[in-house]
Write a structure and sequence with these properties.
Its EC number is 1.1.1.169. This protein is of the alpha/beta class. The chain contains ten helices and twelve strands.
């Protein structure tokens, strides 16, 4: 990939992690709704603090020169609005990389964007400490590809760029399956850690472990009906292995949904849980645990949207 500017739209934990890892290797512009300090500190998984200058821009005041690629790192529920704000400023053909959890906005943006669209799924862990500081909490794996398997050369070039920057990435032809697998992990972990305000590793212990197992059972049945290939040993055991491997690898992490709850933000429950429950309905399966979590998170979202009571 030629060294032209990468726009990273959405300066949350993941967006800043990508920007700070890429900065110094390719030109980077971090785009958000408000200005952030242009000197950012990245705390590495090894505990080192690295200060990096990053060019900032507001989404309503973007430069005229087009980017080489746009990384959309907003939350899933904000992705389409962010893309709409960008679309008129992008010439046809600019690649778009979608980093959202779940499997909701990706098909729609793939259809609407006037250029190549790649989807990325990652297990890199990160959380924001302040406006000028983000922690890379744990190393993970990143997979990149188009939903229809096209744009293989672009995906390979981008994966090489990310890998060289310290974010190991692989171009794949089966990103749709990878997105479903990440969704399965998120559905088994995120609602529970958000509800009980615990770190991922605490799911290994009672009373949480049986709750995770029930969610895995529901998710495995739905994905089997959808024809999504299980990882590892296959079947229910394959999904169990995947979820518990992620729990082990991210034991000290606060999952993104918990970070959103702690910050008083909307969570990505619609993008993570609704695709599974829609699939369950198509195949006439019941998923009471998933449904209960969606109900509870929707109640929380409604409460956030309510105006404060008058004094």
């Amino acid at each position: 990939m030629t060294p032209a500017t990468h726009w990273i739209v959405g300066p949350g934990a993941l967006g800043r992690l990508i920007a700070l890892r890429l900065a110094g290797r390719v030109p980077v512009r971090l785009v958000g709704r408000r200005p952030l300090p242009d000197r950012q500190t990245l705390v590495t998984p090894e505990g080192d603090a690295r200060v990096q200058a990053v060019v900032m821009a507001r989404i309503d005041a973007l430069p005229a020169d087009p980017p080489a690629v746009v990384h959309l790192t907003t939350k899933a529920h904000g992705a389409e609005a962010a893309h709409a704000a960008l679309a008129a400023r992008l010439p046809a053909g600019v690649p778009l990389v979608l980093w959202q959890n779940g499997f909701a906005c990706q098909p729609r943006l793939t259809e609407h964007h006037h250029g190549p669209v790649l989807c990325a799924t990652t297990t890199e862990g990160a959380h924001v400490q302040d406006d000028d500081r983000v922690t890379h909490a744990g190393h993970g794996d990143t997979y990149i590809g188009a939903l229809d398997g096209s744009h293989a050369d672009l995906a390979t070039a981008l994966a090489q760029t990310l890998t060289a920057a310290g974010l190991p990435a692989e171009a794949v032809a089966d990103i749709r399956v990878r997105l479903w697998r990440k969704l399965a992990v998120n559905a088994a972990i995120n609602p529970l850690v958000a509800r009980f305000a615990i770190r991922n590793g605490q799911l290994r212990d009672r009373p949480f472990r049986p709750m995770v197992e029930r969610l895995i059972t529901e998710v495995a049945a739905i994905l089997a009906a959808e024809g999504v290939t299980p990882p590892g040993d296959g079947g229910l055991e394959g999904w169990r292995q995947l979820v518990w491997q992620v729990v082990e690898a991210t034991a000290s992490n606060r999952a993104s949904m918990l970070q959103d709850v702690m910050a008083g933000r909307l969570t990505e429950h619609e993008a993570i849980l609704v695709p599974l429950l829609d699939a369950a309905a198509r195949h006439r399966l019941t998923a009471p645990c998933l449904a209960r979590h969606l109900h509870d998170l929707r109640l929380r979202a409604a409460a956030l949207a309510e105006p404060p009571a008058a004094c």
